Amino acid sequence: MTHLWKTLKAAPLAGVLLLACRSNDPEPKFAADCLVQASATNGQPIAGAYIVTANLAGAVPSPNARVAAGQVETFLRERSVAVGPVELLTSAPQQLTFVTQLEPAEVETLRRDAAVQILEPDRVVSLCACVDVAVPSTLSWNIQQTGYGRGDLQTSRTAWVIDTGIDLDHPDLNIDTQRSRSFLTGESASSAEDLNGHGTHVAGIIGALNNGVGVTGVASGARLVALKVLDQLGEGRLSGVISAVNHVRLNGRAGDVVNLSLGGEGQSTTLDRAIQQAANVGILFAIAAGNESQSVEGQSPAGVNHPNVFTVSALNQQDQFAPFSNYGPSVDVAAYGVRVRSTYRDGRYATLSGTSMAAPHVAGLLYIRGNQLPTRGTALNDPDGQADPVARQ
Predict the structure, then answer these.
(1) Is there a catalytic annotation at residue 247?
(2) Hey, what domains does the chain have and what are their CATH numbers?
(3) Helix%, strand%, coil% for the chain, nearest 5
(4) Of these residues, 122, 132, 163, 382, which one is catalytic?
(5) Is 3 part of the annotated catalytic residue set?
(6) Is 163 an active-site residue?
(7) pTM of structure
(8) How do residues 244-263 score in pLDDT, each as one tens digit?
(9) Greatest CA separation found in the chain?
């Protein structure tokens, strides 16, 4: 996935580190593709924090967090595992997924337990893009070349942006503030307001209004919901991303679109499963391939394969494969991701690069066209030798 993640404030449970790289230089001098490399900590496990999926006889889905937490605590005590802070991610008949702190011996105890289906560390995920605050132009080159439509006419659909939040009063965006929410803890938990800028940029590519002001999105006027999993530094937890995906599965509807312009090194079976379960009920996903110039195979969530999941590599304006973009058989399509202008925090506009910017072009097309994603032509110089089709009308 593209990298924007940053470090989360100390929390009782481990997190994913999301690095959103910014420059405070008023006249920044960027390389031609305006890209900053991902943090060296990307993909590193968070000490002591584990995501557990366990089969619990008699467990039933419960909206009551205390009831579910009690089921988890009983499960751990029966196995002589110390009960520390527990965060429930999802519940299903006979099964619970949760995050907790474990000692090495406890990890081995649970790993040998037949009732434990998945046991994996909570870890750092990251996504990095530089920012060049820009003068807006209503219909930018990337939207002209991708094609665009009336997102405001798709009244039954929602675009869920799992990111740093969205600028909730940006004049160029149609945001459902009532359904927007934060999955963070501490000071950043109270609002889905974007204090970083990345999520607002993604949202504008999907659905900025075609109102003669600022920029226009691929699905202009689309209903946008911010699910904030990263704070102002771009920091968050893998478990928070999983919770946000599960929230869409439970509260969205078939035909809704999720944009995930984030990721990390390595695979998370729990995150991949959450995406597949949501896709099974008709939720559509646009997922950034990542910016490490490497294969996406074995990476989460970019490596997820499903008819309703589209992993997206990046192109420049000339349809050339971006040198930073990840690649591989699990990549479904390519879209524009080099020096893309869109909305930004505090009512502004900015230019960013990365597969983070490519994915929302696909999200916008999915919003107006459904999972019959239009493509035309192929990426030039795709490093895996199998040229990705270009997502555009």
Answers:
(1) no
(2) 45-123 (3.30.70), 132-391 (3.40.50.200)
(3) 20, 25, 50
(4) 163
(5) no
(6) yes
(7) 0.84
(8) 999 999 999 999 999 999 97
(9) 64
